[in-house]
Each structure stands twice: as C-alpha cells, then as structure tokens.
## 1
Amino acid sequence: IFLKLINSNGNMTMQEQYVKNPHLDTMEEDILYHFNLSTKTHNLPAMFGDTKFVCVGGSPNRMRSFAQFIHQELELPGSVDNIRDICEETDRYSMYKVGPVLSISHGMGVPSISIMLHELIKLLYHARCRDVILFRIGTSGGIGLAPGTVVITDKAVDSFFRPQFEQVILGKVIIRSTELDEEVARELLQRSTELPNFPTVIGNTMCTHDFYEGQGRLDGALCSFSTEEKLDYLRKAHEAGVRNIEMESTVFAAMSRVCNLKAAVICVTLLNRFEGDQISTPHDVLVEYQQRPQCLVAHFIKKRLGLI
Ligand code: R2B
Ligand code: URA
C-alpha cells in the first residue's frame, strides 16, 4: 500500500504506510480495543501525529518511569507527576506520551506483545505518523555475559536459533523474517560508548515461549532434562551467536519489518545462565540494571533530536 505525499520541494514522493491490511480502509471506525482508543472517539492525528520514537517494555511501572525519565532528559515543561496513562480505562496496557516519545507496556510473551503491536501500528497509521523508530527495552537472561550487560540485538532468533518467527494463520504456518534495523543497532552501540561504565554488546537474542523449561531452566515446576543437557543447549546457543534470552523479540522484529518500521531491541541481562537459573540479585541492583536500556535509548533520542 503506497501513499502519495508532497515533499518540501513540492514533488510527489511515495511513502509506504505502516499497516499491511486492505480491509482497514473499508472500516468506518477502528476500535483499538486493548488501548481503549477509537478513530471515532479520539482525534488520533492530534494526539499522536508528532510521535517519532516509540519505546515498549514489559512492565507498566517501568514504562511510566521511562516516560518520567525521558520528560526530564528532554527538559520538557510541566511536572513529571502530571504524565497521565492514556490507557488508564483499561488494565491491559499502559501508555504515556512525552513530547515526540511514546512509552507503552506490552506484558510478557509473544501473544501479549503481538496484540499490542497490532494496535500500536494501526495507531501510528491512523495518526499519520512518519519516520518512527520503535525500541523494545527489556530484561533478559545472559549467555556468558556479566550480569548488567546491555545486549543490542543483531538478529532475533527462535528456540532453534533460526532468525524467523512462525505464526499460524488460518491453520497454516507463516514464516516471517526477524531481521532488525542494522543502522539503528550500530548507532546504539556507538551511543553506548559515550556513556560511562556501560558494558554493551551486539549479539543475537533468543526468544522463547516460556521462562522456565523453554529457556532451559532447572528450577521450574516441571523439568525433564539434566544439568548437562541444559548446559549443552546453552553452549549451542552461544555458538550460534546468542548472547541473551527473552520472550518477545522475534514477533517484535517480524511485525516491525513487515510494516516498514525501523526497530531495535535493547535488553539488559539480569544473570549469566551458565552460572544459574534463579534471579537472586538484590532488588536495588536489578532496578539499576533495568534503567540501563532506558539510559541508552534516552541518549540515542537526545542525539537524534540534536539536544547533545
Ligand atoms: C523478559 O522478562 C520477562 C520474563 O521475566 C519477559 O517478558 C521477557 O522477555
Ligand atoms: N527475562 C527472561 O525472559 N529470562 C531471563 O532469564 C531473565 C529475564
């Protein structure tokens, strides 16, 4: 689907829309049910049209903190305490808008983030947003890295280390590529070198559909494999370039790619999975770790906006 635009020289340019669904144009109203927003009841272009950066992460509280943090970093007027949850009428997701930055929670796992992404991508389309960059900032288990290391995802891979996402549609398996924007990843790595004490690597990120057995943990309610088998799997993952494990990156990468959205995944590692499975790091240390992806993305945004 192409949209004709007049650029600043008065010439017609072609820009691809973010949505890939011909049915949308035939609908009189589009209800973004899990956001409690609709094209009839809300002026989406007025509310969201100037959005340039969208940051998503699992937890509603973390995404509120991120909104408050970015408000301070961009030195925007008004109090951080007045930042309102746009989706407060629903308890599915939280959404905060701070200047050109949108901060949204997505819950845990592929189904939760994919519902959010469908509605987010339609929101960007209805609001006529352009040149948006999408970031997932999250937590993960590291493979062979010191806890607290930030991993910028090169390729998001599935549990077989394949850079693809499988979706069942009408009873058929559809495979989509999970490559992310290389330029944004490189630029993020460059920005990380400008921050003090900021261990950062680029590597593949494995996305699983379970936190326990699916990630080779020995400490779930069920476990059918030995310590040796676990370590063997993690070693194979490491050989395939996997540096961290989380639960959303493949569908995030696949949907962004199909919809022409530049996207990046930035996750901090909470533990080294070669050394254990339980997350036993003290709470205050975990809180500091979780701020690292936020700091990196804030630094990136400030640089892009010419503020530093
Ligand atoms: C990282 O952390 C969560 C599980 O604890 C999950 O959402 C993920 O990707
Ligand atoms: N999130 C995950 O998905 N796995 C971990 O080990 C830590 C956080």
## 2
Amino acid sequence: MLELTGLAGGYGQAAVVRPTDLTVRAGEITALIGRNGAGKTTLLRTVFGLADRHGGTVTLDGRALSPGRPELLARAGATLMPEDRGVFPALTVAENLRLARRRDTVPAVDPHTVFPLLTDRAGQQAGTLSGGQKQQLGIARAMLAGRTLIAVDELTQGLQPSVVADVLEALGTIAAAGTAVLLVDQHAGALLDHSRHVVVMEAGRVVLDAPNGPGLRDRLDDLLAVR
Ligand code: ATP
C-alpha cells in the first residue's frame, strides 16, 4: 500500500502539487484523473523522486521513503511507467524485457500471456514499434519489476480501445494478486469500469477521492467539464 501524507512537490521553487493525502491500496486499482496540467505527472514524479519534494511523507508498505532516493522505491518493488513508456528504443523487445526482470520478483502475471506481441516481435527493435505496441512493452516491463506498486502515467494515450480493454484486464489481474495499481489519465472513460477508487486532481490539489460506485460518473463529468 502506498500512502502519501501532505505530499507537496514541484520543480525547484515552482510549487505544482499542493499538500496531498492519498492512499493507493494493495489489491485494487486506483484511478487518478485530471485535466492536462492538473499536476498528475508531477505527483507521480514527486513520489518516485523525479521531481522535488517540498514536504510530506511517502510510505510504501509501512516503510517511509526519504526524498531524493528513487532507488528505495525500485528496491521495494515499485515501478513507474512514464508517459514516454520508458522503453529502450535501440534494444529489442526481448532485451527490454530481460532488463526489466528482477531476480527477487516473480511477476503476478506473465506479460507474454497478456501481450502476444512480446513473443511475436521478440527480436524487433523497440524503437520501430508503433505507439500502442511501445505502450504494451512499457506495461510489460512494469509488470516484471513491480511487485508492490505499479503506476502508469497516461495509460490510454495512443491506445486503441480494444488494447485498452486488454491492458486494463491485465492490470486488474495484477491488482487481484496483491499489487497496488495507480493509473493516471486525463479521461475517466474505460478506467472507471476497472477502478475501485477514483481520485481527481485539479490545479495541484485533490478535489475528489471516492470509492467507485453509482453516481460517480456524473460527478466526474461535472468536475472535468470544460469551463
Ligand atoms: P498532463 O496530462 O499534460 O501530463 P498533468 O496533470 O500530468 O498534465 P503536470 O505535467 O504535472 O500535469 O504539470 C502540472 C504543471 O507543472 C503545469 O503547469 C506544468 O507547466 C508544470 N510543469 C511540468 N513540468 C515542469 C518542469 N519540468 N518545470 C517547471 N514546471 C513544470
């Protein structure tokens, strides 16, 4: 379980994420939704030590993680798939997977069973994959390394709806095996069908944090409506 208490962050002096409390529970998917520029990516980057932490605490499975030590999260089995998918373009699909595999981690789900392209295109250079294929490879890499927490930025970006459904199905299986899954997106869309908890950010703050349930879609429509 990932717990953020009063977490604030940004870039140098620039404050982007205002003090935020957030819990991402093991065994379920939490969706973090918000418009372009709401601060979702900066929140993830602050958690993972890639942006500056201005205050607050980050705790993973009860262990407090010091700011500026991204390796502590990696060691604790937490992975972030960034917007650019974090794949090595000059390496093959198989090499990308080999590098992601950790000796101390048995993935909850073998990504090859979820994404046939990992087998079909094992020898292909990752840089020559389509956007959607790179996305699948990125998620597969996160699946191999993430035991306690998998966070995915802009999950649906560039993915066909049919692939989104497969990916969400796979992430649901991973969550059911006990991993905390945090999915970030601009649109609630398909994520709502798979998320137990929904969090909305606006202007660097959490403006909604609620269990998924009846009526939530309408509240989200109101919150995310273009004003
Ligand atoms: P998107 O959906 O476009 O990724 P987001 O909700 O993830 O949006 P962020 O990327 O976290 O939002 O951006 C939040 C704010 O932080 C924006 O105002 C942006 O201009 C600012 N910002 C982002 N990166 C930097 C940076 N490297 N230095 C300074 N400000 C930044």
